[in-house]
Amino acid sequence: MKKVTLSFILALFATLILASCEEEQTPDTPRALELMGKSFSNSSGVPIPTSVGVGSNARLITHTVIQNGLYTLVEKRSVMTANSSPELNAIWAQHSTNPLDFPQVNLESETVIAVFSGIRSNSGYTLEVTKIWESNGKLVVGIKEKVESGVTLTVITNPNLWLKIPKTNLPIEVYFE
């Protein structure tokens, strides 16, 4: 009787785990983690949304992903930018207590954008940049929150994405897809 009960419980547990993995799925696309540290010119096929006030004179901005993580001390969805060392230090102090992961950037020629998605319920969430463009006196950053299909860990995560772009003082607006 104990073997039957144990087998039933294990089968039920496995079914519940697999069922929870099928809740949120997206098409397979390259993971943001694979893009880490590579520069590219935002040539994805994602259209520029007119709902965020982007005109026909939009200019794409190159960027580099400098860090993409699952854990941060920042618990709410937010975006922070840094053009100076004190600004970057303040953002990092909110993000992490680990000085070894501090991003290496030249703040005389680069601006840092840190995007935080907020608390998520499993390890399958990542953030990815779709495009960054300049239009109408502002920068617009397109961010896609991806959900991994398949088996993920049931653990609290706080996905975050750190980018560097050419130095700018323009206001930055983030568009979450």
TrEMBL record:
Designated name of the protein: Protease complex subunit PrcB family protein
Keywords: Signal
N-terminal signal peptide: 1-19
